[in-house]
Structure formats: C-alpha cells, structure tokens
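tool=predict chain=A
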Amino acid sequence: MKEPRLSTKTSPDATVAAATGTEVRFRLRIRHHDLLAIGPGKVDLLEAISEHGSIAAAARSMGMSYRRAWLLIDELNRALREPATHSGHGGASGGGSGLTPVGEAIVNLYRDIETSAQKACSRKLDGLLGLLKD
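tool=predict ok
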C-alpha cells in the first residue's frame, strides 16, 4: 500500500494527505483549575485580534459574536499571570485591541508545539493514514 505524503495546509494547525483530502489536526488544550486556559480556538482568536486590531473585527472574521469573543479572551486572561491582550478606550472610532507580549508568546509557543508534534509523529501519522481507504 502506498503511503500518503503529508503536506502543510494553509491552516497552521492542520496537515493534509496530498490528493486524499484527509486532514490531521493536533488540538492541544490546557485546562487550569476550572478554566480551559489555552486551546485552539483561543489561539485562533488571538491571531485574529493581532491581524484585525480589535476583538469585534476578529470576532466578525471568525463568524463569532463579539460577546463570545470577549468571554473567551476574559477566560484566557483570568487564567494568566498577565493579560494576553490590551484594549484602548472606546469612542467614536473605537479603542481597538492588540496582543501583549504574553499573547504573542502564547501564539508562538502554541504553533511551535503543533509543528513539533507533527514532525515527531509524522512517521506514525503516515502509518495511520496508510490504513485509510483511497
């Protein structure tokens, strides 16, 4: 049986077997006490905030309500020693938001872990993928 080759998809946390449409995702979640402190959705949201400059714009880009995005960021910040985001004061043009050095570190470390896990498991993933129907 020919083993499928893995290639990186546009999403940094997904790998696809070329020509098969099969997707492999590493979905690391870190629980801290009663909070889901860090997970793929929160990291995606942090990246969107960095890209769009506000929680509202990030939420819209992800098809999520502002309230849901705000609650996710609030939960993340409650689990951290220092906040992952900073916000300006609102007003006519809005205050905007961005990532703090802690927020940037979370994104970078999380994505590095995903890449390392994919590399470390690539041979075993090829074996699993080779068991799937064509």
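The chain has four helices and seven strands. The two ends are 10 Å apart (CA to CA).
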